[in-house]
């Protein structure tokens, strides 16, 4: 264990991301006190640290630990913005079905079963990875509320705590409109306008893609890790409730660098949309629309 990990310092990627948000004082204060917070949970939950997971995420930190009985686990800490609570609610709703299990939870902290963090679906050949990714995602698409009641959402008006895709997308649209005229977006203005037009139609016709289900929200091959009790398990959801095509859109642009470097990239992308839409029974045009909108929104944002 090197000195940085022994002191439980956050990964550089997390530091760079949160430090670049001067307006987000809460996240920066959380980052400043993170080593002390980690130590508090290690003591309270009787955990022995092994190392900080690197390079890690951009909005959370994961420490590989062992419980008092020697069982390996992963301690995940998130800024106090509510994301940990939503992640906890989604993982509890899935209850280990194609997703990582929660062993213990607190405000801003999740103790998760240990997966093989260095082995994601991206370790597989592209065709096999897409097949596995689609199979896992299909099993995650469940009603947001189980037969026994709300998914950890006591008091929620609709029985669950998860944001709706339509409201979430409306926020992304507003941000995209604000950034459309920025100098940095000049070369992408035509794409931005297309994405805004597509989003308007998609949000306006919400429900056309089928019944609303619980969505992972940030699903791609990198968020599906190898496990011991199951071959592949999803991690790090940003859960939403809405149509399946929104969730599937991120898989369309997965390994985009490889896709764009291949001969006939545009045709290959169209084939990928058609194949994913067909395999999971979603409307191909809605999938294409969400894929374009999400890609542009992420790129300009």
Q: What string, H for helix and E for strand, traces the elements in order? A: HHHHEEEHEEEHHHEEEEHHHH
Q: Roughly what is the average pLDDT, rounded to an integer?
A: 89
Strand content: 5-15%
> What is the number of helices?
12
Broad CATH class of the largest domain:
Alpha Beta
Low-confidence stretches: 1-5, 150-155
Spatial ordering of strands, largest sheet = 1-2-3-5-4
What does the main sheet amount to?
5 strands, antiparallel
Structural class comes to alpha+beta
Q: What is the CATH topology assignment of the largest domain? A: Aminoglycoside 3'-phosphotransferase, Chain: A, domain 2
Termini separation: 37 Å
Helix share bin? 40-55%
Task: Supply database-style keywords.
301 residues; alpha+beta; Phosphorylase Kinase, domain 1; Aminoglycoside 3'-phosphotransferase, Chain: A, domain 2; 2 domains; five-stranded antiparallel beta sheet; 12 helices; 10 strands; 15% strand; globular; disordered N terminus
Task: Please tell me about this protein's structure.
The chain has 301 residues and is an alpha+beta fold. It folds into 2 domains: 3-119, Phosphorylase Kinase, domain 1 (2-Layer Sandwich); 120-300, Aminoglycoside 3'-phosphotransferase, Chain: A, domain 2 (Alpha-Beta Complex). Helices cover 46% and strands 15% of the residues. The chain has 12 helices and 10 strands. The strands form 3 sheets. A 5-stranded antiparallel β-sheet has the order 1-2-3-5-4, sandwiched between helices. Strand 4 (102-106) and strand 5 form a beta hairpin. Helix 7 runs antiparallel to helix 8 (189-204) and helix 9 (244-252) runs antiparallel to helix 11 (265-280). The radius of gyration is 20 Å and the shape is globular. The protein starts with a helix and ends with a helix. Residues 1-5 and 150-155 have low confidence and may be disordered.
């Amino acid at each position: 264990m090197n000195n940085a990990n022994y002191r439980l310092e956050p990964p550089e990627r997390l530091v760079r991301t949160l430090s670049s948000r001067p307006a987000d004082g809460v996240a920066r204060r959380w980052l400043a006190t993170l080593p002390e917070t980690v130590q508090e949970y290690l003591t309270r939950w009787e955990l022995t640290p092994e190392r900080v997971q690197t390079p890690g995420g951009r909005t959370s930190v994961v420490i590989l630990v062992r419980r008092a009985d020697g069982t390996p686990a992963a301690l995940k800490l998130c800024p106090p913005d509510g994301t940990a609570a939503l992640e906890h609610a989604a993982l509890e709703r899935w209850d280990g079905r194609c997703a990582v299990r929660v062993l213990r939870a607190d405000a801003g902290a999740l103790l998760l079963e240990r997966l093989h963090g260095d082995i994601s679906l991206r370790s597989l050949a592209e065709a096999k990875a897409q097949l596995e990714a689609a199979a896992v995602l299909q099993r995650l698409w469940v009603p947001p509320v189980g037969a026994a009641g709300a998914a950890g959402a006591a008091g929620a008006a609709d029985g669950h705590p998860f944001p709706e895709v339509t409201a979430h997308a409306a926020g992304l649209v507003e941000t995209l409109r604000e950034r459309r005229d920025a100098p940095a977006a000049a070369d992408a203005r035509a794409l931005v306008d297309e994405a805004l037009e597509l989003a308007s139609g998609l949000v306006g016709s919400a429900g056309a893609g089928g019944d609303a289900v619980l969505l992972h929200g940030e699903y791609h091959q990198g968020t599906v890790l190898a496990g011991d009790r199951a071959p592949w398990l999803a991690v790090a959801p940003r859960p939403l409730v809405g149509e399946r095509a929104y969730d599937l859109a991120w898989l369309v642009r997965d390994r985009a660098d490889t896709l764009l470097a291949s001969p006939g990239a545009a045709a290959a992308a169209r084939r990928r949309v058609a194949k994913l839409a067909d395999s999971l029974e979603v409307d191909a045009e809605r999938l294409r629309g969400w894929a374009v909108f999400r890609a542009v929104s992420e790129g300009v944002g």
